[in-house]
Amino acid sequence: MFVANSAARRFVVLISGRGSNMQAIVRALRAQGASAQMCAVIASSPDAPGLAWAREQGIEATLVPHRDYASREEFDQALAQAIEAYEPHYVLLAGFMRVLTDEFVRRFEGRLINIHPSLLPLFPGLNTHRQALEAGVQWHGCTVHFVTPVLDVGPIIAQGIVPVLAGDTPQTLAERLLHIEHRVYATVAGWLAQGRVTLDDTQRVQVQGVRTRSYLFTPEGAQEEHRL
Ligand code: GRF
């Protein structure tokens, strides 16, 4: 049962691995001061390097190991209980590599958010960088979106865009994109903390006071931030 008991918006982040997006979110929420509270990081695997980082930062880090559960339904139930213990307003998936059941998604609908490494609706699923290179697109990107029961479909909150360069491999493209993923997810976390993100009657996202929700990759060290 969701009961918000403080003025601060409460966040839980779910990870499965490295957790670099989680780090960007944590920094962004800290920058919001008292209006945002990072309650916990929950990992689906004990090997997730992001868990150690969260603990070092003094953030509560919990493990719900998917291997301990016989079915997806049982895992999702345990995960939902672990999340609800923190009474979060928002649950942010950051490199969380488990497909969630419809029941889980409905339980958190409207407050469950994901980052996907492609410009949705292009290239849902896995191996998005390879898919982009094989399709020959010249722009690639990431999408932060509300999660709905259909995988990698859901109201888009913001997108980040990178150029595809000659000679790119899935790895080089992934590295270039990761910088903009951090920027886009951190920005969205800030908007959520400020209570600016809503869904309208047609399930389209509105962000109060924001004109552009697209971000263009800026090479390291560039003086000026390029926003489309
Ligand atoms: C990111 O590229 C994210 O878009 C994808 O998985 C990767 C996770 O990286 N879903 P990290 O764990 O946030 O470093």
Instruction: State the separation between the terminal residues, measured CA to CA.
Output: 40 Å
Bound molecules: 5-O-phosphono-beta-D-ribofuranosylamine
| Strand numbers in spatial order across the main sheet | 3-2-1-4-5-6-7-10
What are the low-pLDDT stretches, counting only 5+ consecutive residues below 50?
1-5, 223-228
Question: How would you summarize the topology of this molecule?
Answer:
Blueprint: E1 9-15, H1 20-30, E2 36-43, H2 49-56, E3 60-63, H3 72-84, E4 90-93, H4 102-107, E5 112-116, H5 128-135, E6 139-146, E7 156-163, H6 170-193, E8 197-199, E9 205-207, E10 214-216
Parallel strand pairs: 1-2, 1-4, 2-3, 4-5, 7-10
Antiparallel strand pairs: 5-6, 6-7, 8-9
Helix pairs in contact: 1-6, 5-6
The structure holds 5-O-phosphono-beta-D-ribofuranosylamine (GRF).
Features:
228 residues; alpha/beta; two-stranded antiparallel ribbon; 6 helices; 10 strands; disordered N terminus; binds 5-O-phosphono-beta-D-ribofuranosylamine
Q: Would you mind describing this structure in some detail?
A:
With about 230 residues, the protein is an alpha/beta fold. The protein contains 6 helices and 10 strands. It has helices at about 20-30, 50-55, 70-85, 100-105, 130-135, 170-195, and strands at about 10-15, 35-45, 60-65, 90-95, 110-115, 140-145, 155-165, 195-200, 205, 215. The strands form 2 sheets. The protein has an 8-stranded mixed beta sheet with strand order 3-2-1-4-5-6-7-10, with helices on both faces. The protein is globular. 5-O-phosphono-beta-D-ribofuranosylamine binds near residues 18, 115, 142 and 178.
